């Protein structure tokens, strides 16, 4: 087996399991442990994994990009594709929750151009401002404690109001998703607790996330993957990731 082929298989195993061990790889490929360590070193140099004692784990990034304003101009093409897919999940007469998420800003823009009667509930200021001009949408804005960086309201007051509401569907953002830990992350605990309230108040909850979010982490785990019925991405997940999320009985749209 060529070196490149072996290293490709190592990455496939890592994506599937989240962790690989030098000893197991040595036996699997019938090469020395020193040879495997060299493979891992080469892959780490290309930022494809992170070496740990006895093996390697997936390389995950925490961007600490806290301000919504900083995220609005990133991955715009991908967000538009995700928003278009999400729009198809909304039916006339639905009551939907749009979370603090720059993908949801794109979804709100699409709703403006669609003549569909819908009840929109949101805690994000940008979404409120956009949909104030929607002739067919009934808008409810969730107040609370201003999260200036997130451009919306979170905290106890917001949570208390969400507790009293019911959504046909909630469209949620995430700063990171770890399929091996069954974890969906945001940055702040207060934001995470508000997000979880929205998920719990919805008949159907969807994660709207670019594929790269599957290699990113946040600071607060606000939900498990099996709290959602689907994750909406701009393109299909890798074969390994798609296989893994099926274990949580959720779809990739």
UniProtKB/TrEMBL annotation:
InterPro entries: Carb_Metab_HTH_regulators, DeoR-like_C, DeoR_HTH, NagB/RpiA_transferase-like, WH-like_DNA-bd_sf, WH_DNA-bd_sf. PROSITE patterns: HTH_DEOR_2. Keywords: Transcription, Transcription regulation. Residues 3-58 form the HTH deoR-type domain. It comes from the Bacteria. SMART domains: DeoRC (SM01134), HTH_DEOR (SM00420). This is DeoR family glycerol-3-phosphate regulon repressor. The lineage of its organism: Bacteria, Bacillati, Bacillota, Negativicutes, Selenomonadales.
